[in-house]
Amino acid sequence: MGSDILSFIASGWYYILGAMVIAYLLGSLNFSIVITKLVDNGADIRKMGSGNAGFTNVLRSVGKGPAVATIVLDFLKGIAAALVGAFFFSMIPSGNLPVAEMMCYGKYIAGFCCILGHIFPLFFGFRGGKGVVTAAALAAVADWRVFAIVIPVFIVVVLITKIVSIGSLIAAVLYPVVTVSFSFFADYLPSLTTKTPHSVFYVIVTTAFALAVCICIFVMHKENIKRLRNGTEKKLTAKKKEQP
C-alpha cells in the first residue's frame, strides 16, 4: 500500500500540486469582501462590525441580501474546489489503488486548500474569514452522510442559541467524530455495510483532514471563544433597513 501511494504521488505530483493551487486560489475569492465592496461603495467588511470577512458579519453590517449571496458563493467555491481535486486525482494512474478512493483524497486535499485560501486569501492581504461555510461545502462533496448529520445539528444549535459561533464550534467537533464513525464502521469494516471496504489508510486520511478542519475552525474562533466565556458574544441579527 505504501509503495503504491508513493508511486501515485511520483507519477502525478503535478496534478496534485495543480489541484492544490487552483483550490487555494478559489478559496482566496472571499465573497464577503467582494460583495460588500460592490454593494456598499467600496467598504471593507473587515473594517465593519466584528471585523470578520464572513457571512455573519455581512448579515449584521451590510444586510440579508449580501449575506445570502456570500454564503451561497462561498459554499459553491468549496464545492468547485473539491470537484477540481477529484477530477485532477482521477487523471493520475492509480495502479492497484482504487480510483474512487484516490478521488476522495483529491476532494479532501483540494477542499482543505480552499479553506486555507478563504482564511488567508492571496487577493486580500491574507486576511479572510473563518472557513466554516467552505468547510461545510467540503463535507457535502467528500461525504454527504457526514454533511447530513453535522449541518442539521449546526442549524438547530444556531436556531436555539441565536449564536453562530456556538453552532460552528459544535459542528467542528462533530465533523471528525462523525467522519471517523462512517469511514471506519461503514466503509472500512466489510461485515457491516459493504463487500468492498476501503483501506485503513482511507480511514486515517479522511479522519486526519476532518480533524485538521476542526482545529482550523477552533483557532479562527479564538476571539469568539473568549467572548463566549465572558458572556459578550453577540447573537445573530440582521442589519435593519435605513428609514428614508
UniProtKB/TrEMBL annotation:
<keyword id="KW-0012">Acyltransferase</keyword>
<keyword id="KW-0812">Transmembrane</keyword>
<keyword id="KW-1208">Phospholipid metabolism</keyword>
<keyword id="KW-1003">Cell membrane</keyword>
<keyword id="KW-1133">Transmembrane helix</keyword>
<comment type="pathway">
    <text>Lipid metabolism; phospholipid metabolism.</text>
</comment>
<comment type="similarity">
    <text>Belongs to the PlsY family.</text>
</comment>
<keyword id="KW-0443">Lipid metabolism</keyword>
<comment type="subunit">
    <text>Probably interacts with PlsX.</text>
</comment>
<dbReference type="GO" id="GO:0005886">
    <property type="term" value="C:plasma membrane"/>
</dbReference>
<dbReference type="GO" id="GO:0008654">
    <property type="term" value="P:phospholipid biosynthetic process"/>
</dbReference>
<dbReference type="GO" id="GO:0043772">
    <property type="term" value="F:acyl-phosphate glycerol-3-phosphate acyltransferase activity"/>
</dbReference>
<protein>
    <recommendedName>
        <fullName>Glycerol-3-phosphate acyltransferase</fullName>
        <ecNumber>2.3.1.275</ecNumber>
    </recommendedName>
</protein>
<dbReference type="Pfam" id="PF02660">
    <property type="entry name" value="G3P_acyltransf"/>
</dbReference>
<feature type="transmembrane region" description="Helical">
    <location>
        <begin position="144"/>
        <end position="161"/>
    </location>
</feature>
<dbReference type="InterPro" id="IPR003811">
    <property type="entry name" value="G3P_acylTferase_PlsY"/>
</dbReference>
<feature type="transmembrane region" description="Helical">
    <location>
        <begin position="168"/>
        <end position="188"/>
    </location>
</feature>
<feature type="transmembrane region" description="Helical">
    <location>
        <begin position="67"/>
        <end position="92"/>
    </location>
</feature>
<keyword id="KW-0594">Phospholipid biosynthesis</keyword>
<feature type="transmembrane region" description="Helical">
    <location>
        <begin position="104"/>
        <end position="124"/>
    </location>
</feature>
<keyword id="KW-0808">Transferase</keyword>
<feature type="transmembrane region" description="Helical">
    <location>
        <begin position="12"/>
        <end position="35"/>
    </location>
</feature>
<keyword id="KW-0444">Lipid biosynthesis</keyword>
<keyword id="KW-0472">Membrane</keyword>
<feature type="transmembrane region" description="Helical">
    <location>
        <begin position="200"/>
        <end position="220"/>
    </location>
</feature>
<comment type="function">
    <text>Catalyzes the transfer of an acyl group from acyl-phosphate (acyl-PO(4)) to glycerol-3-phosphate (G3P) to form lysophosphatidic acid (LPA). This enzyme utilizes acyl-phosphate as fatty acyl donor, but not acyl-CoA or acyl-ACP.</text>
</comment>
